[in-house]
Amino acid sequence: MDNFLDMVKSRRSVRTFDGNGVKAEDVDTLKAFAENITNPYGIDIIYDFLEAKKNNLSSPVISGEKFYITAKVKAGKYSEEAYGYSFEALLIKAHEIGLGTVWIGGTMPREKFEEAAKVSEGEIMPCVSPIGTVADKMSIKEGLMRKGVKADKRFKFEELFFDGSFENAVDENKAREMGLADAFEAVRLAPSAVNKQPWRIVVQGNCAHFYEKKDKGFDNGVYDLQKVDIGIAMYHFEQQLISEGRKGQFEVSDPGIKMPADVEYITTYKFD
Ligand SMILES: Cc1cc2nc3c(=O)[nH]c(=O)nc-3n(C[C@H](O)[C@H](O)[C@H](O)COP(=O)(O)O)c2cc1C
Fold this sequence. Notes:
- Helices cover 33% and strands 19% of the residues.
- The protein is an alpha+beta fold.
- It folds into 2 domains: 4-143, NADH Oxidase (3-Layer(aba) Sandwich); 157-271, putative nitroreductase (tm1586), domain 2 (NADH Oxidase, 3-Layer(aba) Sandwich), CATH 3.40.109.30.
- Helix 1 (4-10) runs parallel beside helix 8, helix 2 packs antiparallel against helix 3 and helix 3 (79-96) packs across helix 9.
- The longest helix is centred in the last third of the chain and has 19 residues, at 225-243.
- Residues 12-13, 61, 102-107, 127, 145, 149, 151, 191-195, 225, 228-229, 232 line the site of flavin mononucleotide.
- Flavin mononucleotide binds at residues 12-13, 61, 102-107, 127, 145, 149, 151, 191-195, 225, 228-229, 232.
């Protein structure tokens, strides 16, 4: 992958497919890639590649899809962040080989998907994604859905990123001075549930502390969908730095920075 940010900029959620299905070689490529995905928590994610018709799978917001990827994980601490990180790696790979995807965590008949993916006691399957070739034209319902969640809008840099404390916002110019503009942009353009963009980052020297700004209605007591969003953001941030030839690692080590209401510390990326 050359510049990760270019990949992120050309991605969008795809809900209208051309009805032609997915070539067997593309499924094989994704299966092989999935086997080697790791995440900072060392938590296993189990993927399945399921034909829609054979398994009676559909979603009211999707049309023309022939294939779904399901992903499940053992419930536990950090399982959602690990899940977001790893499943996003697979969905970005699908985008790289020319396939459309969309994270689906709510708008699906969950029981049918959980049965098809054989989700057992103690496991969770927060999301699934269709895969396929993007249709030439978006369906009307896809257009409406994008409008409804303002899918093409994102918060400004200074609403998401901070230097030293939550009181010291970082705008795009400052981010450039800090050498983090593209990594931040890769986070800003990430997908998130209902486009709520719950990621917040506070930088302290060579540490980027990741926080979750919680909205109501995303934590069902078993898992928190916005922690999946944070996992996705972690993947985007790290991959952009890697594509710039830099490196680092995630470590849970709360710096104790004073947090606004409804904010939770998640993890820290220490980079060169
Ligand atoms: C964890 C997660 C769950 C999502 N669940 C749904 C869903 O149930 N239905 C849907 O149509 N889109 C879903 N989305 C897609 C978001 O609506 C989409 O990412 C957001 O609106 C931004 O649009 P974009 O991905 O095209 O940039 C989900 C995204 C994430 C990350």
